[in-house]
Amino acid sequence: MSHDNSTSAATAMVTAALRVTLASPVGTSTRLGDRMSIGTLVIRDDDGRVEAIPFRDIDAEDTHRLVSIAAAVAVTGRPDHPAWSYCGGVGWAALVIVPVPPPPSEIRTGRADLARAMLDDLRTRPAREQRHVDFFVRIAHQNAIPDAEIARRLGLSEDAVRACLSGAPR
After folding, report:
1. Which domain of life is it from (predicted)?
2. N or C: which end of the chain has fewer CB within 10 A?
């Protein structure tokens, strides 16, 4: 997303009116737990037009989501929404923090890490509690963990892992 001079000027005016200090016009974000939030200026002009200006370069899909959520918040004026401030020449403005979900690749990595932890935990259980081995092997396989790693973590042969995946008796 490019920020032209008029956008930068509007951002500077609005941040001054809201008494908000940015580290830079683009690139400001915060992390809340596992979720990233992006600061967004929402500007509503006197004609009721709403515009959201993210403070960070993000891809088109996230930009669309960010703008739509910020605009909806701006229009509805939820109780947790900061008060609007009027900024001459720009219109009414508010600062909105919108959480952005992690990209799908990070979600997949998190699931794979969880599957690995489950495999390691399963290996430490007594034999009578290993009745769910097939289930956990399938979960690990669905999360792109290689058969050799599954076998190593469970102390099985790769043939046994393949048997779990095929449903064949062992």
Report:
1. Bacteria
2. C
